[in-house]
Amino acid sequence: MLLLERLEDLKHHLSRCERKVADLVLGDPQAAIRESLAAFAARAGVSEPTVIRCCRALGCIGWPDFKLRLAQGLASGGGSGHSAVQAGDDAGVVLAKVFDAAILMLQRTRQAIDAAALEQATRLLAAARRIECYGHGASGIVALDAQQKFYRLGVPVVAYSDAHVHAMSAALLKPGDAVLAISQSGRSPELLGSAQRARAAGADLVAITVAGSPLAALATVAITVPAVAAAPGPLPGGSRVVDLAIVDALAIGVALRRTPLIPESTGLET
Amino acid sequence: MLLLERLEDLKHHLSRCERKVADLVLGDPQAAIRESLAAFAARAGVSEPTVIRCCRALGCIGWPDFKLRLAQGLASGGGSGHSAVQAGDDAGVVLAKVFDAAILMLQRTRQAIDAAALEQATRLLAAARRIECYGHGASGIVALDAQQKFYRLGVPVVAYSDAHVHAMSAALLKPGDAVLAISQSGRSPELLGSAQRARAAGADLVAITVAGSPLAALATVAITVPAVAAAPGPLPGGSRVVDLAIVDALAIGVALRRTPLIPESTGLET
DNA sequence: CTTCGCCCTGTAGTCAAACTACAGTTCCCG
DNA sequence: CGGGAACTGTAGTTTGACTACAGGGCGAAG
After folding, report:
1. Domains of chain A
2. Percent of chain B with pLDDT over 70
3. Cβ-based burial of A118 (10 A; exposed 0-12, middle 13-18, buried ≥19)
């Protein structure tokens, strides 16, 4: 994806003919990777060396190299180009953009995440006598999801979205218990209160939140997700899929330390 | 990734020289995409036409086409290879595999999904006077998520996971109302009952489920997700991220038809 | 308004990479 | 042991990618 972004950037201070090339690539990248240099140059209405010069400007060795990088970018970043949903997009386009954005965030998170913290969090949760998941709003849904996943592992686990309830529950925890606190801001006062209570009671606190937030500071282990400059446009809670995936990884990591696990098929399908 | 999988498959009933090619590719795919045909053939210790024949056997047009597909597969499939989580994986590896699996499912779904159905579903929901989201278990969480997302659009929306509650609620619906039913099996009897009630009451039914299921048959519009031969290993509910992404796309599609929408920032952060 | 100079674009030619047709070898089966 | 078929390599052809160079447009300065 970096390549298309760079192209978009450079497009403006590029001159006429080279812009024709840029537009054609941005317009239909998929087509470009299939064509030969000659075919593409003809379609753009420019000569072959012009196209090559354009590739060089982007840091590529030549046309084949450019095609290769483009292909890689498209495969990883998706086909429809880049995020921003606009009025007038039909449902198919919206879907493509939403999926692309989700995939992009997953990829970025995968690279940015701190493996050591994750490892420690997994160990803590695997050793916990009891797990409580706290979260509000969108993160409340993630907490519920975490609850369902840990259920299967035979760990006593609950999820609370009610500030009063988790405040009370947190105060009753004991050393050896663990709280999984989820917050996209890391600043919700109610959540911070319960987190503090849990720590005071001797419980461990695993937080899924952003780096540098008060919640992260409070946690025994903080799993920090990059504060994704949330994809532009009306994309509320896009990061929920990232949180869910992290919870998934945690649950599976815990499962591996607690084998044999409870079989997945319960006869109850949803 | 499909390409490397096919290579692995075919490797066994391939003959000597062609296997040398296959081994070299599987051993270091990244190297292959950089080299020219001649260089690669020399490194493999075979002649150029042999390599080409190998590419043809995999369904590619020739060496450049093979390189291209390989590059795309590597970029999309990620670095860590392919899914299956195993005992002994540390947290970082588990995370990578889980994320890869999620990304793969998103990519497959994006391509497989029926844009027309999605478009129709978006129109129905945008026109609905009232939306009710039904789902049990894992899908109950998706229903909750849908509720939160539609909230912001100013549509009256509720989510029920209790079979008795949604059975009653469905019976009270009127033409112009819409139900969003989510089920990964499409066979939950309670959900089917309420779906039927809703239809009988004149409401529209949008279903997110698998193709060919009873729920899909019942729906006004069925958004069918490929019955992903759910990634092997203990990966419960991996498809939840896919469902969430679909709900996201629906909500955004509806938002585009209902502009101006309620601002995202409410001062309430989670 | 004209003229000089630079940057940009296209043309033609070269080189290498990819592919095809064919012939030799090897291995299996009769 | 001999014949045939499949597989592998060699040589030749074609096409695609790239380079060197020449022509033209645009701005700046006189």
Report:
1. 2-79 (1.10.10.10), 109-257 (3.40.50.10490)
2. 86
3. buried
